[in-house]
Design a protein that fits this description.
- It is built from 10 helices and 5 strands.
- By secondary structure, it is an alpha/beta fold.
- About 45% of the residues lie in helices and about 10% in strands.
């Protein structure tokens, strides 16, 4: 894709939205809307059809978790009543958080968010993250994300995840999934398994297809919830 990513910024703090807008615009990224709460975020996404949503979690009224669920469930993505099945692909959602909101990050990833950013992210990381998640090529901050999943995937107080059939994966795909869930990038996977990055991408795509997963974030969660890897194990 050569055209500029289209982004909606969702945060209840006007200064945060303004700062992110300035950073993204300076790098040629098109901020098509801003929203201060979850209801406004859902409306903005339906109206503008962005590629990426930067989503705060804790906001007045409808929070970022519920907004994430509604946006990803809204297959039509429009306000004109178009049929959902053939409608546009929902945007990638990136959670905005701080370290003390880890449990919310896991819940957002479990709801279908594609990754997360800390609110003190550098300008360079912010713009690079938007472009990466828009391409669907990589999970943001994979090493940190898998630690969050390790901490919360087996915690109490939540319903057990549906079983995902790992038997459909080849031995190599199982190895790739395990390494991916431990936070390895495509380049690191290629080096580890002595493969080209193109081959690694093919393996990842097949894993996602076979397990019916949206993206790498959900693959990380699936690896823990199926017991392929366990919290605290080395790899």
């Amino acid at each position: 894709m050569t055209d500029a990513p289209r982004v909606v910024i969702v945060d209840d703090q006007a200064l945060v939205r303004t700062g992110f807008r300035m950073i993204l615009a300076a790098d040629g990224i098109d901020v098509v809307a801003e929203a201060a709460d979850g209801d406004a975020a859902v409306a903005a996404v339906r109206r503008t059809r962005p590629d990426v949503v930067l989503m705060d979690i804790r906001m007045p009224g409808t929070d970022g978790l519920e907004a994430t669920r509604r946006i990803l469930a809204d297959r039509a993505g429009t306000t004109d009543g178009a049929d959902g099945a053939d409608g546009p692909t929902p945007p990638r959602i990136v959670v905005l958080t701080t370290y003390d909101l880890d449990q919310y990050v896991y819940a957002a990833l479990d709801a279908g968010a594609s990754g997360f950013l800390l609110k003190d992210v550098t300008p360079e990381h912010l713009t690079a993250a938007v472009r990466l998640v828009r391409s669907g090529d990589a999970l943001l901050a994979p090493a940190i994300t898998r630690r969050l999943v390790a901490r919360f995937a087996t915690s109490g107080g939540r319903a057990a995840a549906p079983h995902r059939e790992l038997a459909t994966l080849t031995p190599r795909e199982l190895e790739v999934l395990e390494a991916l869930a431990r936070g390895h990038s495509n380049a690191e996977l290629a080096e580890r398994f002595r493969l080209s990055e193109a081959t690694v991408k093919t393996h990842v795509a097949r894993i996602l297809s076979k397990l019916r997963l949206r993206d790498r974030a959900q693959a990380v969660i699936a690896a823990y919830e199926t017991g392929l890897i366990t919290p605290g194990s080395d790899g």
